[in-house]
Amino acid sequence: MALPKISFCNHQISKLLIGDNPIYGYSHFNQLLSQHQKAYHTPARVVETLKRAEEVGINGWQNSLTERSLSDLTRYREEGGTINWFCLSPGSLWYDEPDAVFEAAKHNPFGMAPHGGGVGYRCLRENRLDLLQDILKRIRDTGALVGLSVHDTKLLHIAEDEAWDIDYYMTGLYNLHGGADKFKAKFGYAPLGEIYAREDRDKMCEAIRRTDKPCLLFKVLAAGRTIGSPAQIRAEVKFALEHTKPIDPLLLGMYQEFSDQIGENAALITELCEEIL
Predict the structure, then answer these.
(1) Under CATH, which number does the domain 5-276 receive?
(2) Tens digits of residue pLDDT in 211-258
(3) Nearest CA to 264 among 64, 21, 18, 8?
(4) Using the 8-state DSSP alphabet, how is residue 30 labeled?
(5) What pTM value is reported for the model?
(6) Helix/strand/coil for 198
(7) How does 28-40 read in b/e, with b if 16+ C-beta sit within 10 Å?
(8) CA 270, CA 257: separation in Å to the nearest integer?
(9) 20 and 26 in contact (C-beta within 8 Å)?
C-alpha cells in the first residue's frame, strides 16, 4: 500500500511529513540526547534521511531555517531532492526582524510559518497580535503558503474568529508553555523539564476540528515520551488520526540510527488510514 496523499491548499501532500527536531538535536528531552542526535546527523546522513523519506512517499519536510538547515536543504536539492519545504522561522527572529521573512522566501519554501513559541506564543502573551498579523501579511506577499504555528488553542480560536488570512495551521498537540504554567500555579515552582498534559491534547484536537483549514499535527508522540512500544506508538497515532480531520497531515520527527523509523511510520499511517479513513 502507498502512503496516502491529501488535498492540502490545492496541492497533493503526503499524510505523513518529516520534521527536523531529531535531525538538528532539538530533542525536547535532555542535552545528552540532543548531542547524540546532532552527532549522528552529518550532512550526508541528512540527505540520506530525506531520500529515504521520498522512497516511502513523504513529500514534505518542515524545518526551522538556520545556516545549517539551509546548507542541508541546498545539498539535498542539488542531489535531485524534490520534497516540498515547509519553512519555520528560527526562534524569535521574525519577531525582532520581520523583514527576514523576505530573505527566507528566496529559498523557495512551499509554506512559511512564524515559530509557534518564539513568535506566536510570544505575541499572544505580550498582546502583540498586530505584529503577528503583519508577519503573516509579509509571508503572503512572498507568494508562499501562509502558515500559523500554535501551541495555545487561544491563538487558533482568535485567528478563526477574526478570519485571519492564512492557509494552514501548525498545531502542537501539547501546550508546553501552558503545561509549565499550570504546574507552577499548582505547586508553586517551575517543573524540571517540559510538561505534556493529556487535557491539552484534547483541547487542541477540538480546536483543530473547528477549522476548515488543514493543520500540520506536531508533538503527536509527545516528543518521544510515548514510544515505549509499537502498541503505544500505534495508539498515539491512531488517536491523532481519529480526533482530527482527514486533511490534516502528521508531522513526525524521525531518527534513523537504530531502526528505519521512516519506513515504520509510513507503513503504520498507511495501515491506519485504510482502517480509519
Answers:
(1) 3.20.20.60
(2) 999 999 999 999 999 999 999 999 999 999 999 999 999 999 999 999
(3) 18
(4) -
(5) 0.95
(6) helix
(7) beeeeebebbbeb
(8) 23
(9) yes
